[in-house]
Fold this sequence. Notes:
The structure holds two protein chains of two kinds.
Chain A: E1 3-13, H1 15-27, E2 37-43, E3 47-50, H2 56-59, H3 62-67, E4 72-74, E5 82-84, E6 87-95, H4 105-122, E7 127-130, E8 134-137, E9 140-150, E10 153-161, H5 166-172, H6 177-181, H7 195-199, H8 206-224, E11 226-230, H9 235-249, H10 252-257
Parallel strand pairs in A: 1-2, 1-11, 3-4
Antiparallel strand pairs in A: 2-6, 3-5, 6-10, 7-8, 8-9, 9-10
Helix pairs in contact in A: 1-9, 4-8
Chain B: E1 3-10, E2 16-24, E3 27-35, E4 38-40, H1 44-51, H2 59-73, E5 76-78, H3 82-90, E6 93-94
Amino acid sequence: MLEKWRLILDKAMPASYNMAKDCALLACSSEKEFLPTLRFYSWQPAALTIGYFQKIEEELNEEVCKKENVPIIRRITGGGAVFHQHEITYSVIIPLSHKLANSKILDSYKILSDPIVETLKSYNLNASFEGINDIVVDDKKISGNAQTRRMGGVLQHGTILLDLETDKMFNYLKVPTEKSKVKSNAKPASRVTALKYLLGEKVLSNDFQNKFIQKIIENWQIQNNIKFETSTLTEKETNLTIEYKENLFENINWNKKRTIEKKSLL
Amino acid sequence: MKNKYTNILKKETEKLIRISYSEENNCISNLSISGDFFIHPEEAITKIEEKLNNVQKDTEVINKLLIMLITQNNYELIGISPESITEAIITARPV
């Protein structure tokens, strides 16, 4: 018998909504009726997120972001600052008791990222999981992934880059020289790639992206012996999404100082 | 008199660590640790920063305290280690 999972296919939404929805799903993940969930989404408008342990003033050129109306949101997951524009974003939410969560955190990154690696390979790309939380193609990063374990569940979300506007991206991000010193290539832009550079302009079409997502879904089902049912949020998850959006991800104290005014939220 | 110190440390197999603190009479205060690493649970970072306040700026003292704190509370550190936090603090430069 195949295990039943929920699939959520979302349209492009603002950063605060995207992060709030992941958070709401995580908050409900330990409930009896919760189905393990795979979600795909994108970002409108383009936005920047920073990791839980980062500081906006250290990672981003705030003035430039402000001038260009690019929202800045702190994630509940660790990892680095990300400019979300041309990408496919996924999240997977499972209860802590689930067999896929029942492994070392470091191992579970690889397990939960593997359907993406396999999907990239199916396009004849030299893809592999590398280091702690990255997927690379020909040694260049194409996907970053971040995980948190709280509220009785596991949330892993990550991106697959479709295209790169490096000038724009590195105008927003402050990349310290220390990061370049230990890498083989000096310029940060040369360490990152996107599907457009590997497969051509077609990756920017909705048709390609839908097919790519379908391949990830198929690989998820095959690798984990599960069956997806497309669905939406429960009423509780919908209400929690609004709560997280308004009280956490649109709260300047959370985004700037990691302060949670309503302690029950996390 | 309090002196402010900062540092950015990136080890080859780890994530980037940013450190800032004040120092008076060889004691650390107002310590801040940030970066693109992972700590589970995430709130442990506040406990780590608090525990290192008013601690002697000494490699052995800091490293021992960190290992004890992490072991006792089952904190899981990914892309960061007690050794790299200690090194980042000790090798920090005055602002």
